[in-house]
Each structure stands twice: as structure tokens, then as C-alpha cells.
Specification:
2 copies of one chain form a homodimer. Chain A is of the alpha+beta class. The first copy, chain A, has 12 helices and 16 strands. In chain A, the strands form 4 sheets. In chain A, strands 1-2-3-4 form a 4-stranded antiparallel beta sheet. In chain A, strand 1 and strand 2 form a beta hairpin.
Chain lengths: ~375, ~375
């Protein structure tokens, strides 16, 4: 690859780029096309940034930060109006065309074979014929999302929702309005635009939006500057905080602590900022307590009944090779999963996937046997 | 010090002892008498083991392990009967006489000036005149315990409860029955003996005991082999798990994650082992949720009202020097605390202590100001 050019586009020196190659830059030769990826952020280059062998560069999607106390955060962060979009709960992909082929990049900068097949099914090639440098930043959601399976969205399989657009070889994204224009123009689904408010009233409006989304089991909102001058921020519903906690404690020895603290602290600040009544706080406490205890009890009783503690998801693929490739992709991503034999159906194959959560499985058995914690 | 003799008593080689001196053995020249302490366990020598300059050796008190599923643990661990004692919630000290002076050692092997003054007040010197090698292992509890202040015990200041006895220069402890005999003989308080049961019925008996203790806000039980052939194990009430969680979340950015997971997992296993009804589980969930949320909310609202997030405790000392020494001891133990000016009272001085929890204090302020998590 042409180091000088790549360094210049990334906005770092050539020698720095060379230095990073021994440390945080990783090569990925599979699936085609070959690429190098930034495993971590470095010198202002986002994690997940990718350089393809043909020279195309795709910047990583910037991490969206989260305030816990919304009103003052909006006051500090935004200058005028605040655009509100739904934050969807799936996995973040960047879809683009490289040397004439559509690919889907994961957050970390891998080509995900399954996401790629889904993208090829859902994103008309015409988009990239007309805009060869376009990078579609979106969320893949639905019950057939093998990373985060959710039933709450209007799909019984998996769907793609655009939430931003970028360009190859250029930092930054196009922002709310251009994103929705483009989605409309090419008939793509986009994350719901929930309104635009002056910042002094935004927090109160958003509280009602988040409460409504929570009742629907949806995740929350992303707040964007309509002029795209400052970075977006995110804010989530109690329902999603608690359902994440429930997942964490269902697999308490694998995931619980990872994200537990931040989520309960969100609950505390939300309750204070919203000046909840004693009763509302009692309900919130009940919700938190149940998401912790009930999911953990389910796991312990399951194990006591002799079942294994696993995560199940079912996906559909058009092409058997996609399933084989995806199995390999999960393995390289450090996810232990067993794939059932494919079952042919009208449009391809249905495949059950069992994700193993060994630590919780083994620990629960040991504790049930009377071992010490 | 006579390395050969010390090594021989500790049960390690002289060269190993020399090696440890550069790594995990620390010297403590203050307060008198000088000593060396094992900061961590090494070669089978318990953490907190102390060698005084006069050659006296005091072994660290062994860590007591905890099962989460009680019945099978008892079945595996014990041979015949199980003796049940109350586990008290304070700080663990070893009281002994060195060169004619009574001192109290913390778990880590420091001489604690405050605990030492309390021990000198509560433990008759006669005990050590009659048994110069005696080491009294006990719990200091009460509202004036500056480490763990608890109101639930029958003292309005601080008291000492014996739970085991050991001897200088000898590993191991004497066990339940000798401990209670000695306490009786010298009029010392001992942790309550709650019965002795055959192991097949012990778990059920203990369930009732733990439920009763929980209703009284007490911590739980330590299970011991009456013959002192196997190590003790411990088991705690839901009430104490939740009150610990509440403290953790009151200072969520300083303590929460440290011990959160283990405590909620205990709740899950206890609920399953006790085959609780839906209703009982709902109440347990509420209890857990409230201990998390309400204490956190209290902190956030306190901070929003402009108060600092601190821990307050009041102690009484006979001697002003004890207070000055204790202030230094807390600092060397890594605890940041401010001491009020002493207020003379009938038996000495009352001193208010403010323990600072900076991380929670600062983090809460920042989040209230709208900073991101």
C-alpha cells in the first residue's frame, strides 16, 4: 500500500503509521478483499478504521458518548437546536462497495460474512453505482441478529436501518438531514427521526420520548446537532438498561460486571433528574432488582435441572458458504458458538446457533455442587 | 532477628524467608514494638502474619471461605456435626501481649492504635499474665467502630467479641469449645454459639438461624467443625448482603463494583436453594433493587444539594495520643479521613471522623454538571 497517501488521508505522519503497524494495526486477509484495521484508536484515527488493499480507506464510526444527567449535558454540548433520532439495539455496521463488491464492516473493522450477505440483500447496488465512495453507517436489528437478537423491531428476520452516511477516504459524516434525504432517495430504511427541539426544552421532550420508547421495549435516542457541528450523544430508557442487566445476570459469570455498574448508575441519575415520586422509585428499584435476581435464578434453576447455560439464535442464509464463513468469523472474534446442521427452506437455509457461555455454565455447576465462591 | 528460628516456626526455608523479605514482607517500625508483616500469603504463611522484634510470631487469621449453596457444601466439607456461631460485622483483630504490653493487630498485621486502646480497656491483663502466649482472635463491633460502624450490637460504643484463640509461634487455632471455655473463664464476650447439628439437618437449621439474624440486621453465621479438624466456612443473610450493597452504591464510584457481583450472586443461590415462592422472590428483588437505587439516589440528591459525599463516624478515646496515632494509622492504611478537634467528655475525648470518598464525590458533581460517563 502507498504509505504516504494513506498516512496523509489518515492525518498522521508516515513514520507514525509505520510505528502503528507493529502495534495496533492488524491485517485481515479474509474474507476478500484483504485489509488492515485499527484495533484501537490512535493519533486521532478511530478504532475500526480500515484500509483496503485497493487503497480505499473507511474511517471507524466515532464512539457516541453518554450523559447521565441530560438537561445540563444538552445545555453544555449543543449550540441551538437538537435533533432526536431513535437509537436502535443491534450491531453497528458500515456498508460500502469495494472494487464493485458490497461488504459490511463490523465496528472493529472486520468484514462480517453474514452482515455482508444481509447487506447485499437489502442495499440496492445502484446506490454504490451512483455514489462509489459512499459509506452507509447503520444498525442491523431483529430476531435473526446473531450478536443482539431483538423482537421489538418491525421485522421477523433482520433489517438494516441507516443512521449516518460517510465517504471513503474522508473523515467525518454527513449528519441527520443528508442521511434521511439519501435514505428517501434510494428507498432505504433509516432510524426514526423523532423531532427537533430548541435546547432549552429538549430535555423535557426527550424524557417523554424515552419513556414511550421504553414502554415499547426500545433502546433510546441519539441526539444530533442538525448542523452536524458537534458530535452526537446518546441516552437510553430504563427498560433497555434493565434488559441489558437481565442479560448480564443470566450469564452472570461471563458478562455481569462488564456493564452492570454503568447501567445502574444511569438508573440513579435518571430517577433524580426526573424527580420521580417514591412510588416511581419503588417501581424502578423493583425493575432493577428483578432484572438482576430473576434472570440469575433462571440460570441457576436451569443448571440444577441439568440443562446447559447457552444462548440460542436462529439465522437464515441464502448461501451455505455464508454460514461456514460466519462460523469462522465468530471464532476469530472470540465467540464460541456451535452451528446446527443447515435446514433448507424456501429462500435458502435456516441455521440454529448455540453460543456457549462456559464460565457461567461451569461456575454455576460448581457452586451447586457446594464449591466455595 | 534469628532468621533460622523464624523460618523454622513459619515452616519455610531460611533462603525462602530471605527471598520474601525483598518482596512481600514489610517492616513496621510504628507504633512500638517494631515488627515485620506478611502483606500477602506466601508459601503457606497467611497474609497478616507478624514477627515482632522480640521474636514473637503471630500467624495471620486464616481466610474463611464461603459456599453459595449451603447443603451440598456442608455435606462435602464436614465429617459429622456442625457447630454454628454468629458471624459479626466489624473488624477482625488479634489481641495479644508483647513484652508485657497488650496490642491489637489488624487483619493485615498492623498495630491499630485505636483498637489497641479499646483492647486494653476490655481485655483484662490477667489473661496474658496467666497465658503469655495467648492470641485472642475476635471481632470489634459497634457504632464507634471507625472501619465498620454498626448499630445492631448491644453496645453504644465499641465492644470486643472473641471468636477463636491461638498461640504465639504456633500455627492453627484452638476451635469452638476451647474458645468459649476461655471466654467464660476470663469473663470475655464471645460470638454467640447458636447450636450444634448433625450435618444432614444442619442446612435447614441454619436457614432458620440466618433468617432470624437477618431480621435483626445481623450478618450471618460461621460454621465450624466441633473437633476443629476442618476449616470454618461462612454464610450470610440477605439483609447483610443488601446492606453491604447499599453502602457500595452510596459510594458507587469508590466501592460499588468491588463486592457487588459476589453479593447479588449469593442472593440468587440463596433464593434457589430455599425454593422461595414467587412472592418471596419479588420481595428479595425489591430489597436488592432498593439497596442499589435508593442509596445511589440519596448520594446524587445530597450532592445536588451542595453537600459533600463523606462517611461520618464518632469515636471516643481515653488518651489524646491515641487519636493522633489513629489518624496516622488510617493515613498509612490508605484511608483519607479528617479528624474534628477532640471534645473532652467524662472518660476522655469524643472525636468526629470524616472519611472522604473522593471518587464518588467528584464523579457525581461532574455528572450533575452534564459531563459524560
Amino acid at each position: 500500500m502507498n504509505l504516504a497517501r494513506v498516512a496523509q488521508i489518515l492525518g498522521i505522519t508516515e513514520s507514525r503509521l509505520q510505528g502503528l503497524q507493529e502495534t495496533i494495526i492488524r491485517e485481515s486477509a479474509w474474507p476478500e478483499p484483504r485489509l488492515i484495521r485499527f484495533e484501537k484508536e490512535a493519533s486521532g484515527v478511530e478504532a475500526g478504521t480500515v484500509v483496503f488493499e485497493n487503497g480505499d480507506i473507511v474511517f471507524g464510526y466515532p464512539k457516541i458518548r453518554r450523559p447521565l444527567f441530560l438537561a445540563p449535558a444538552i445545555e453544555r454540548h449543543f449550540s441551538g437546536a437538537v435533533a432526536v433520532e431513535e437509537k436502535m439495539n443491534g450491531h453497528n455496521v458500515r456498508v460500502l462497495s469495494v472494487s464493485g463488491e458490497t461488504v459490511a464492516l463490523t465496528r472493529g473493522g472486520f468484514i462480517c460474512p453474514y452482515s455482508t450477505e444481509v447487506a447485499r440483500r437489502l442495499v440496492p447496488e445502484e446506490i454504490f453505482e451512483k455514489n462509489p465512495n459512499l459509506v452507509l453507517c447503520g444498525e442491523m436489528v431483529g430476531p435473526e441478529n446473531p450478536y443482539v437478537a431483538k423482537e421489538v423491531y418491525p421485522t421477523d428476520s433482520i433489517d438494516f436501518y441507516l443512521f449516518d452516511v460517510a465517504e471513503k477516504n474522508r473523515k467525518g459524516t454527513a449528519g441527520v438531514h443528508k442521511t434521511h434525504e439519501l435514505a428517501e432517495q434510494f428507498g432505504l430504511k433509516a432510524t426514526a427521526f423523532l423531532g427537533q427541539f430548541q435546547k432549552d426544552i429538549a430535555a423535557e421532550k426527550i424524557r417523554h420520548i424515552v419513556l414511550r420508547l421504553g414502554r415499547q421495549g426500545r433502546e433510546g435516542v441519539v441526539l444530533k446537532d442538525p448542523e452536524n457541528q458537534v458530535s452526537p450523544i446518546k441516552y437510553t430508557s430504563s427498560a433497555t438498561n434493565c434488559s441489558d442487566i437481565a442479560v448480564g445476570f443470566k450469564y452472570y459469570n461471563d458478562y455481569a460486571t462488564d456493564f452492570f455498574l454503568s447501567r445502574v448508575v444511569r438508573e440513579g441519575f435518571q430517577s433524580v433528574e426526573w424527580n420521580e415520586s417514591e412510588e416511581e422509585r419503588g417501581e424502578r428499584a423493583q425493575r432493577i432488582g428483578e432484572s438482576i435476581l430473576f434472570s440469575m435464578i433462571e440460570t441457576i434453576e436451569k443448571k440444577r435441572a441439568g440443562e446447559n447455560i447457552v444462548q440460542r439464535v436462529i439465522i437464515h442464509v441464502r448461501n451455505l458458504q455464508t454460514a461456514r464463513d460466519f462460523e469462522y468469523h465468530l471464532r476469530r472474534s472470540g465467540i464460541r458458538a456451535l452451528f446446527d446442521p443447515p435446514m433448507p427452506d424456501d429462500e435458502g437455509y435456516q441455521i440454529g446457533i448455540t453460543k456457549l457461555v462456559m464460565s457461567t455454565n461451569d461456575k454455576t455447576q460448581a457452586l451447586l455442587d457446594g464449591e466455595m465462591w
